[in-house]
Amino acid sequence: MADNTINFIELVALSRIGPDSSVEKFGSVINSSFVDAANVLATMKQKGLIDFVTSFPSQSMLKITEQGMQIISEANQKATEQPDALDNAILTQLLKGKRGLADLNSSVNVTQKDLAMHLYKLSSQQYMSYELANGAMSIYLTEKGFMLANAQPQQPAATQPPLQAQGQTAQMPQKDPEKELRDIQLMVGKKNKRKMIIVLLIVAFIIVLLVLFLKK
């Protein structure tokens, strides 16, 4: 069916058509020039979503077809549902900076209609917002959508393998034999010096005692 190819821009445009909508004034409704709005409307008519009612010399009025009404009904029904896995995938892509319809469509790999329905739901539930201008659209996360996207389980980060698993041998600190020998010699020298001082003190003490004894 032709409506399977409806995109989000067309769904938004379709939802903004009212009883007094006309081809000539519809550009202001979707924030686009007359030419851009006419291109969107022409595509929608080709898909059987709308029709033009012209009565000269008045303006060309817009009429939503039965097929278009079914699309709007389906979108409104979808908007009442809880966010699902596809909604979470879309929010994740928005979190990564994907803002255009083409980027989102290639990232989540669903039909244009499925993407349009879920974007309509996310917008209705204030998980995202969009800017439509001159036939192009940019999509942004709201704070609510940002919180939901961050609440999704993330892939665990790969743990760093041990050095040996990376083909590297764990290096033990190298010892310097000469330095160790010098340290030992220094330690022994200090001990010997300490012993010599003690011996000299003892000898001096004995000499002092002998001198005092001989004086008596």
Write structural notes for this entry.
This protein has 216 residues and is mostly helical. It folds into three domains: 2-73, Orthogonal Bundle (Arc Repressor Mutant, subunit A); 78-150, Winged helix-like DNA-binding domain superfamily/Winged helix DNA-binding domain (Arc Repressor Mutant, subunit A, Orthogonal Bundle); 180-216. It is 54% helix and 9% strand. The chain contains nine helices and four strands, in the order H-H-H-E-E-H-H-H-H-E-E-H-H. It has helices spanning 8-15, 26-29, 34-46, 66-78, 85-95, 101-108, 112-124, 143-150, 177-215; strands at 50-53, 61-64, 128-133, 136-141. A two-stranded antiparallel sheet has the order 1-2. Helix 5 (85-95) crosses helix 8. The longest helix has 39 residues, at 177-215. The mean pLDDT is 83.
